[in-house]
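Submission sheet (multi-component)
Chains listed below:
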Amino acid sequence: MLELRDITKRFGDTEVLRGVSAEIQKGEIFTIIGPSGAGKSTLLRIIDFLDTPTSGSVIFSGRDITSEGSIEVRRRMGMVFQKSATFNTTVYENVAIGLRFRGMPETDVRKKITEALEIVGLTGFEERKAKTLSGGEMQRVALARVLVTNPDLLLLDEPTANLDPVSVEMIEDLIKKINRDFGITILMSTHDMVQGQRLAHRIGVMMNGRFAQVGTPREIFSAPHDRYVARFVGIENIIEGTITAKDGGLATIGADGTLLYAISPLTERTHVHLFLRPEDIALSCTGEHATSVRNVLPGKVVEIIPMGPLNRLILDCGVQLIAVITWKATEELGISVGSEICASFKASAVHVVER
Amino acid sequence: MNEIITGFTTAIELIISLDPEVIETAIRSIAISLTATFFATLLAIPIGSIITFSEFRGKKALINLVQTLYALPTVLVGLFVFLLISRAGPFGFMRLLFTPEGMVIAQMILILPILIGLTISALKAVDSTILDTLRSLGATRFQFMNSVVREARYAIMAAVVLGFGRAISEVGAAIMIGGNIRGHTRVLTTAISLETSMGNIAMSIALGIILLGIALVINLMLAYVQNR
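Outcome: structure written.
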């Protein structure tokens, strides 16, 4: 449905996009996640030809639309922006505007708007002044406005970035509904990795102007390609080491004099990064642990940082590890700064990549 | 001091009694300036839109020039239009000199820069997300400009009111092009000028009060529209 071929974009001396390539399948929700300034918005703007790429091409339904940029092609797409844009008129007129551009007869316009407002949960808001709505309601108006134009491709540029949690949930439900019930392909950017995970069939992680990794949410969150992606998707334990021995799939890895075990196809003497999620680390004070656990590291608690209902513990086990544990468990185990502790995790919980 | 107080009381009498000459002059003033403002607006909105949404060399210089012309002296406009429409001028055959139509043209030229300049400012002030949204909804160039103008309508209306205020209050061009002919081209400002020089202070004050009253009414109407 949409193919991006090696797109670059420069603004003066700043290179915002450095060769973005991807293929978006018909009917999927593809989210672009990445930190602010990674180039997500610029990419969406290029697809809707609000900006022109410095080089590369956008193929939409088999046609190269990069230089063409016709209104006819643009009318097959819809875009919703991060900042709610409502026109200084009624909700009805706000939703109608795209249809008026297309010269649709008023009776059809009314029918479409009634349906769209029902879908976004704003039935009865027709005559309200759009400027008096809340941020969440404005974004729903924006969604209704593109929905009535029946686009093949919907581009959403961080549509929930400025909203409260309740509105975010509502918009997310709508996005899923629009994709599921109308089969509209959705390309959406967000800096919220969990949102990406909740909504997407596939995710592209954008770092420094290119896709560092494209894959299903599971692939991205459990097997990041490099340490930048790993850090962005919330993997806090990133350890450098070298494979010192291999026994079948089991690799022994030396990291600062500590031996760790992981499952990896990589060969001996490969320099690697190990990724380990804090929630995969179990803690005990007695040194008892499940027999299937390969990695058992005694150490000390260096710091305890409260984080919502959890505590983040920074441990010195020869290598620095970050683990999470509930407040209650912290108290029951009598853990405080300086406590002796045993951290354990399975070899399969460690994801190994070549560095 | 006495003269001023008598002037005021007589002025009020003239207005309350709907003195035919005062009313006729006031209506002519409003008609000429409204017509000038109407045609100037008709020109200024598309010109302002095209300047705002086109990229060309010298755009900045052009906008600077337009803004400089805000302070265009009314007598200069009078002179310029006089040269164009006097018997010997290129449009002399149209016999516009000393006619209300000639005055409309002069006032139009006078306020066109303000209207164009403030239209540009009003359009530039429209949020960029609104512009992106219009483009992404598949607007043609005309639909795009039309929608942005609609979005900036209150700011543009304020510009129109300001233009009307300048048109109705100017005297230089009105006297040079209109000639202050009683019952034909005499407007509030030229009448005030004449009556004062003739020592008819009461008449001048009455006309002055009406002129201020018109400005007040127009501004109240604008405030009402903007608050809707």
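Remark: The mean pLDDT of chain B is 92.
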